[in-house]
Predict the structure.
Amino acid sequence: MTVTMQILSGGLILALCSLVHLCILTGAVRLLRLLGEDSGKPYGLRIVKLMGTGLAAAVSAHIIQVWMWAAMFVVTETLPDFSEAVYFSLATYTTLGYGDVVVGKGVRIFAAMAAVTGLLNFGLSTAFLVGIYSRLMRDGR
């Protein structure tokens, strides 16, 4: 795969993953608003319920993106099977990059785009969770 094709195809998957992430977080905001209306519970339980819901949404979004990248690594024959692709995708997406599974020279930039996807969307998740927590602390006074 040429460098240009690696950047374009990796960028496309990055964009799709980010769209999925934003859709899940947007849906979670709607759900959090509904759950937040139940003010009959003690304040501490309310925080746990709402933060837990937000965390579950963020984690789910990341898991889906890891699977999306793994599927692309198999479809593009970057990696031989889905199990190895999920492992590599997770290690790359989280920027751990253990190095025990590597890809060929012709797809390194493409694979590195999975790390960029993780960096961007972990930032979104962090902002989302901080926003929930800030709102809960402000409303709890």
